[in-house]
């Protein structure tokens, strides 16, 4: 989006502000669809945890996407947005049996990653189709916190525990209709992903009535100029060829599914914040903004980099700044970053703010969460109102003391 449009939205809706470009979301969705165009049964389930605003979910539904959910509440959000239950897959981790059963009653596809829960669910509900999440023991991902397919991960059932899985299925006579994996996020090496996929194909041979194979996601997106990203087109060609061969060998039509989150919405997102103060110290020039890690925690949590530009002075002379927030802890968004000259009152724009940004926001320091806007058809649509102090108090109960 153009700096002048973002500046206009900051003026209209205030700051801090999240803005999402619907056109970019559609571009990424179509890019993935085109990469697997030769697969007759191809399905995208958008990972709700990346950005869970109901208007975004409704928009993705209009593109043809289903949803990948990890909680009862995400399932409920999807249903509220009008997504059909059979277009939603539910992949929890460490939740109660009661929650899984509640979701199952909604008609959503259940995906289980725990031997104990698999046996309990199969014993009580043998006729409800279940997908199994396999841990292929492949280390992939750009950060230890987002690499979830390695041997020490809490996610998935170990590939080495396949005999246990098969014994549970034999004993319960439960119906397994899908098999799933997710190795991690920010995967750079297509060959590593294909290696993990090969493990999943071998595993699938042990199940005779599968309807789909779900390869998770984890595609790397660029975070700065010249940054590398997953070559989705190359990956699509290679996996399509292997999948079609396996489908013939399997002797039954199969759906190839993915669960992209960051890939679909990260680059579509912009976070706008106003500069409250420019502070010169003995060694650093700080640009302090009207936000903090209560609104955007990724740089502090993952060490992720978000390109920052001064949209109030896009053609100014570049200087070095450390961009920091107003939280009463160290919340540094960028250290010694080259940004066009900053003045108090300027609006800074953080790129790649669509995924795991607002969805991880909090009220730390009793600060209010920002508004969200969807830029669609040349207009900014408010899709979440800015919080007020009443929202902070809403569920608090004051007792007599």
UniProtKB/TrEMBL annotation:
The gene is lysA. Pathway: Amino-acid biosynthesis; L-lysine biosynthesis via DAP pathway; L-lysine from DL-2,6-diaminopimelate: step 1/1. Residues 24-266 form the Orn/DAP/Arg decarboxylase 2 N-terminal domain. Keywords: Amino-acid biosynthesis, Decarboxylase, Lyase, Lysine biosynthesis, Pyridoxal phosphate. This is Diaminopimelate decarboxylase. One of its GO terms (molecular function) is pyridoxal phosphate binding. The active site is at residue 328. It comes from Flavobacterium cucumis. The modification N6-(pyridoxal phosphate)lysine is found at residue 49. Residues 18-354 form the Orn/DAP/Arg decarboxylase 2 C-terminal domain. Its EC number is 4.1.1.20. Belongs to the Orn/Lys/Arg decarboxylase class-II family. LysA subfamily. Transmembrane segments: none annotated. The keyword Cell membrane does not apply. It catalyses: meso-2,6-diaminopimelate + H(+) = L-lysine + CO2.
């Amino acid at each position: 989006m153009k700096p002048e449009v973002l500046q206009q939205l900051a003026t209209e809706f205030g700051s801090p502000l999240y803005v999402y470009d619907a056109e970019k979301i559609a571009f990424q969705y179509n890019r993935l669809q085109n990469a697997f165009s030769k697969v007759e049964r191809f399905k995208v389930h958008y990972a709700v945890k990346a950005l869970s605003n109901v208007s975004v979910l409704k928009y993705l539904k209009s593109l043809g996407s289903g949803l990948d959910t990890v909680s009862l509440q995400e399932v409920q959000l999807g249903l509220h947005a009008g997504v059909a239950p059979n277009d939603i897959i539910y992949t929890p981790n460490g939740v109660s049996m009661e929650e899984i059963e509640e979701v199952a009653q909604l008609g959503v596809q259940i995906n289980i990653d725990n031997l104990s829960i698999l046996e309990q669910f199969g014993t009580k509900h043998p006729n409800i189709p279940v997908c199994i999440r396999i841990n292929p023991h492949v280390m992939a991902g750009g950060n230890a916190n987002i690499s979830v397919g390695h041997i020490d991960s809490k996610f998935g059932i170990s590939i080495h525990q396949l005999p246990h899985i098969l014994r549970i299925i034999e004993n319960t006579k439960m119906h397994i209709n899908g098999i799933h994996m997710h190795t991690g996020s920010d995967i750079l090496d297509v060959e590593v992903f294909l290696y993990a996929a090969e493990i999943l194909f071998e595993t699938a041979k042990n199940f005779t009535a599968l309807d789909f194979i779900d390869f998770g996601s984890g595609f790397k997106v660029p975070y700065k100029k010249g940054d590398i990203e997953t070559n989705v087109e190359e990956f699509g060609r290679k996996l399509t060829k292997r999948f079609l061969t396996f489908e013939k060998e399997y002797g039954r039509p199969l759906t190839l599914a993915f669960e992209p989150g960051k890939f679909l919405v990260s680059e579509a997102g912009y976070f706008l914040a106003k500069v409250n103060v420019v502070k010169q110290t003995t060694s650093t020039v700080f640009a302090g903004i009207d936000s903090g890690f209560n609104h955007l925690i990724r740089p502090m949590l993952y060490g992720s980099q978000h390109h920052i530009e001064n949209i109030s002075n896009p053609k100014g002379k570049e200087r070095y700044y450390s961009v920091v927030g107003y939280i009463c802890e160290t919340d540094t968004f960028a250290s010694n970053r080259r940004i066009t000259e900053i003045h108090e009152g300027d609006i800074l724009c953080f790129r790649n703010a669509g995924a795991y940004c607002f969805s991880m926001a909090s009220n730390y320091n009793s600060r209010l969460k920002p508004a969200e806007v969807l830029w669609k058809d040349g207009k900014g649509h408010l899709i979440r109102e800015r919080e007020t102090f009443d929202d902070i108090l809403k569920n608090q109960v004051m007792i007599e003391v």
